[in-house]
Design brief:
single chain, alpha/beta, D-amino Acid Aminotransferase, Chain A, domain 2, nine-stranded mixed sheet, 5 helices, about 25% helix, globular
Length: about 200
Amino acid sequence: MITRGVGDLTLSTKFMTACNLIIITKELNENPAWWYEKGVEVIIANTRRTSKETVDPSVKSGNYLNNVMAYNEAVETGAFDAIMLNQKGDITEGTTSNIWMIKDSCFYTPPLKSGLLGGITRMKIIDILKKEGLEFKETTISETDFKNCDEAFLSASTKRIVPIIKIDDIKISNSLPGENTKKLSKLYYKLINESIT
């Protein structure tokens, strides 16, 4: 984290001194196997994603209030995570992950212009889809489209690829991780293992 530095309690940046650099490290434990074997349930949050005109989503800042509020909505319903809509009502992302859906074997993810952070794992998945010749579209996704998908999953560096089996009260892929999602997961793990060795 980079802070504005030590200075007077004011919103003015002219009182800033040299910025502070804070590095926090933590050992990451293995995620529960059931995330990948059984899939997870998500909700569509009432809390909207901060507008990209207000805070640029490509800036990874500590301004997570909306995400925290959306995640708490998920926790209160017993869901794994919350999917956030933008001001137009289109799908953007999860509280700490990117969102994908599959319809008729085509992979879809919202474009950056919808107001989301372009994650590293999202970028790697796009590379895999292009390399494997799998049909892929980066396009605006409505809530209705998302709930009518064949398969869905979320992606993040610390979560990897997590299948979604339920959105609100709508069951996805017969409440099981979908075949296309599982195929992509194998390709992604292969890429990760090749990077490590």
